Amino acid sequence: MLGTLNLFLAENLSYTWRSASLVVAQASGRSEATARSIRSWLHAFLHKKRLLLHLYGRVSTSILHDEDFQSKIQLHLLECAKKGPITAQDVVDYVASPEIQEQLGGRKKKSISLATAKRWLQSMAWRYGKKKNGMYIDGHEREDVVKYRTEFIARWKEYEKRMVLYDNNGKIVSTPKGFPVPQGGRFRLYVITHDESTFYQNDQHKNVWSHPDLGPTPQPKGEGESLMISDFLVPEWGRLKHDDMEARMVFRAGKNRDGYFMNDDMLKAVDNAIDIFEARTDGRATGLFIFDNATIHTKRADDALSASRMPKRPNKGWTHRPGGPKMRDARFSDGSPQPLYFPDDHPTMPGWFKGTEQILRERGLYPASGLSASCKKCPQDRKDCCCRRVLYFQPDFAGQKSALEELCEARGHLCDFYPKFHPELNFIEQYWGAGKLRYRVAPRTSDTEEMERIVKESLDDISQQQILR
Fold this sequence. Notes:
Layout (H helix, E strand, L loop, with lengths): L1 H8 L7 H11 L4 H17 L18 H17 L4 H8 L2 H7 L9 H10 L19 H18 L4 E2 L5 E3 L14 E12 L25 E9 L3 E2 L1 E2 L2 E2 L2 E3 L11 H19 L4 E6 L3 H4 L31 E2 L5 E2 L17 H7 L24 H6 L2 H4 L4 H8 L3 E4 L10 H13 L7 H13 L3 H5 L1
Parallel strand pairs: 3-9, 9-12
Antiparallel strand pairs: 1-2, 3-4, 4-5, 4-8, 6-7, 10-11
Helix pairs in contact: 1-2, 2-3, 4-5, 5-7, 9-14, 15-16
């Protein structure tokens, strides 16, 4: 600029604005564009008395380099991530919020673009992609689960005293010594484990050898038909069967098929399994039937004792389940029966349900101050806060067993349930895995009958030694 002014103002020279700026630009090794810039700078200086400052040595920095500002955004994004996946728009909206605008001090732009928000997310170590799964927490360390698991282990140690134990190769490592048991002469105890598993028609290997000349083959959609297999395994014999009888049950689950596998189906399967076991042992041994801790297995009988939903006052026609049978008799502390319904010849309430107040009065447990029928949520440290709570902790109500336990014990056998969240304790899981491995490499089936045949062949192919392992 100074050189252009000197050339233009020199009295012995006759340079115009344009020619003077061109000479200066050429002398500096620049183009005509620089000459135009020089002239515009001079005009700005002459008219506005303002010199333009160059930015040499200055770096354009992002506000994100401010650690306090970046920390605020990070905390905001972490909170948003707890509610669901975040997006670049979350950053744009946060920057446009009054809180951040006040910190920015009235900049011309009220927010940033989506592209800038994505760059900011990248610089703050956020990455876009499929979210990785964290550790699966299933509740196996819950207080009630730990308590049941500890009690199950103690029961199992008692069971083992009556079992023949094997190593992984099927060799006997321990033989029990006899001692008096409730089952009398049926001292020997056999473990009979149960489980259900579902096979699907289209559950075939997806990774196979192929050749370009073969071309693509159309594949069926969905999983196809399903077959649920219910089976019992015994370490000594493998599958529970005898002569032409077998405990395996094939169930075609579905609305328009066999329906759905319910507790009544389970009871029929167990009753049949007990028949086969007793035929196999000539009634000289006791079976320990073990099931997983699913509700279909732990369900109580329809007339079982239960304090839930009991009314406080006498009620005509009340049953625990609408349309179900009357609840069975309870038991006093001395073991004598306590009918829960008034007799049919009662003068005013023949056959009516007594109500929890009357039941507690007969037991001498109803306080003079009275009790409410139930609480919205009973305190953990109280056992006498309401009528239902008091009955819930009575020995006959608390000791009510499941329908499966009652069936097994009525026929002279034992019943137990694996701890929740511990499927690895049930050795039948390896049986299902080995069966499905064989089924998946078999040819694809075209109908349910053929599928059932292949499923049975796949399971029958598993050796007893593999079951023991």
